[in-house]
Amino acid sequence: MSAQALVNLPNEFLATEFSLDELLNHLDNFVIKHISSAPEGMPNTINAAEYAAKYHLASPGHKVRARLCLAACLELNIKYNDMLIISAVSELLHNASLIHDDIQDMDEMRRGVETVWKKFGYNVAICAGDLLLSSAYGVLAGISDPKLLPKLITLISNRTSSVIKGQCDDIEYKNKPINSIETYIKIAKAKSGALLGLPIELALILSKQDAYLSLAQNATGAFAVGYQVFDDLNDIEKDAAVAGRSSSLNIAFVLADAHSSDPLADAASLAKQYLSEAVDLAEKLPHALGSLLIKLAHQLQGQVHHDRAG
Fold it and tell me: pTM here?
């Protein structure tokens, strides 16, 4: 069945006919189509930024944001094409931020391959990230209800601004270390929480259930803190630099600067605390919207306990 034929099918059909992984494949094709710029009849004509962007997308992560978006859209019975659009927005923004983040952190590997800047150089990497960022806005043109565009664009702009501000605070940390847990949490929510919450928020706007936007943002913000702490615990060696200082904002070093007697244990407790908060808040979302977030939070809680709590 073609994608066009699926556009008007009810999502009850989609949920039974296709697995989430199959819908992710539909999304991958949709995204590639919208960042492709080769003139008709010249399929081998491709600019460096597009080539680099496709290189980055060819090594996908867990696609948590896309999964959250697709799952939410199925629960809210959002049209197939609209579902692909807002899922694409979520993934394009996230991957744009990763390409730019790798440049700023000078990370040479991501998802088992060379990062875009390492393989293609800084200039092409900046352009590749910009291409994905602009594509996220461009794809919105196909939304079925144009009256919702101002609200959707405003939300996307606000969340993107939050990520940028959080990234700037993260960069500033390298020059001026912090010992405030509250500041760390604020940065984690801004950098990670904004784009984790966006998929569910976009689905809520399309289904005209704006009353739950704040709850969705709070739930995903708490999850983002828990996930960031978990990620930091796994990146201690990578983030460490000369004389025990951290080259990146890492909770273990923040806690050490705050004179914690056991930074690793305290970090594990903090992760569990925020993941539990995420579960409590997600359970209050309507239509089982929080079910996938709850599942992910429980999975992380188990890994934090297994790896660090003992």
Answer: 0.88
